[in-house]
Amino acid sequence: MEELFYVAEDLGLKKGTDFESKVENLSATFTFTDKQKGNLLRDEFMKRYADGMINVSYITNLKKSAISDKYSFKITIQ
Q: Are 51 and 43 in contact (CB under 8 A)?
């Protein structure tokens, strides 16, 4: 699961500043106030999955919260 946070660091994104995260077993939910940063990280996960660099079960689409101005997606690793 740690490798997911290294991907964010590689992009210059900092936990607590650029995004929040919640980890449950083999899943992590990433939450952003900046939609572009959320898309950037999600796209990088997709690229690394396609290149065989990370082993992913699924990644949800980035979606806007109904109760706040935040965006989030969930990723599950195998």
A: no
